[in-house]
Write a structure and sequence with these properties.
This protein is of the alpha/beta class. It is 41% helix and 26% strand. The longest helix is centred in the first third of the chain and has 29 residues, at 52-80. The two termini are 60 Å apart.
Length: 296
């Protein structure tokens, strides 16, 4: 009321703007003066003007009203999912492809004011970040021969799946039947695998175990580009998800497996965040980007 009086100049005008009675406005201003122990208004003819104390408070009132208006606008944008800050994590090959495309869509959308921070984490660490609240969304994977459990309170939505193929040097390719190969044909071949602390290694170990042998590992790396270059150098063979292949080195082939292995991708969020409009907007962009690259 004090800010409106400073702007409008009369009690009657304040009452009309705020849909109150003039006596009601006068009573509330008088109550504020008693609370503060300071005179905030004084008569000047038929007008009521502000004292120096009233002018100071009125200026603060204008600032408060402006901030409230800004807060209302920002809350409305959050309800609509067009603004807000969110932390996203994904494993590297998904970040390079699906997440990069989703970010491109969100950044070029004129109606979006969403702010994203991105980290690249393997699924085990990504789910821990999600459970502890340091990430709001996480793109994780599991393999058809290695199940993944989600922490309590975390929900996931399937994005799609991709085949895992055997990367071999063309000169080292064994015989094949019907366009597919049996892993058992490479039981005596050196193997290049992910590091032993992640499910990607378990996938290789179990696929080879199903074929009747344990892989003789000569190199370990989480970088699939490095794995492919080592295959090209004749170091060994590797099982590689298709999304991880950015460039196939010369002389390297990707062979389909007679007993297929697939990598499934999922978008995980905390259960309470599923209704958040910003999370839904980001999820929609990620889902659309995944649909262009993965099979269902």
């Amino acid at each position: 009321m004090l800010a409106a009086l400073e702007r409008l100049g009369t009690i009657a005008a304040v009452a009309e703007e705020l849909h109150l009675t003039a006596p009601g406005v006068s009573m509330q201003l008088a109550a504020l003066e008693r609370e503060l122990g300071l005179a905030l208004t004084r008569r000047q003819g038929r007008r009521v003007v502000l004292t120096p104390a009233g002018t100071v408070l009125a200026l603060h009132g204008h600032d408060i009203l402006d901030r409230l208006s800004m807060a209302e606008l920002e809350l409305e944008a959050l309800r609509a999912g067009s603004s807000g800050r969110y932390a996203l994590t994904a494993f590297p090959s998904a970040a390079r492809t699906i997440i990069a495309e989703a970010c491109r869509h969100l950044l070029t959308d004129p109606g979006s004011g969403l702010e994203l921070t991105l980290t690249t984490l393997e699924p085990e660490d990504a789910l821990s970040a999600l459970a502890t609240g340091t990430a709001d969304l996480a793109v994780v994977h599991s393999y058809s021969n290695v199940a993944r459990e989600l922490p309590a309170g975390v929900n996931s939505t399937m994005l799609g799946s991709e085949p895992v193929r055997l990367a071999v040097r063309s000169a080292d390719r064994r015989s094949s039947t019907g366009g597919t190969i049996e892993l058992g044909e490479y039981d005596r071949t050196p193997w290049i695998t992910p590091t032993r602390d992640v499910t990607c290694f378990d996938m290789v170990d179990r696929a080879c175990g199903l074929a009747g042998f344990r892989p003789r590992v000569v190199a370990e790396t989480m970088d699939f580009a490095v794995q492919l270059e080592l295959v090209a150098a004749g170091v060994g063979v590797a099982l590689v998800p298709s999304l991880a292949v950015e460039r196939l080195p010369d002389g390297v082939e990707l062979l389909d497996l007679a007993h297929p292995v697939e990598r499934a991708l999922a978008l995980a969020v905390r259960e309470p965040s599923r209704a958040d409009a910003g999370v839904r907007a980001i999820s929609g962009a990620i889902t659309a980007a995944a649909a262009a690259r993965l099979t269902r």
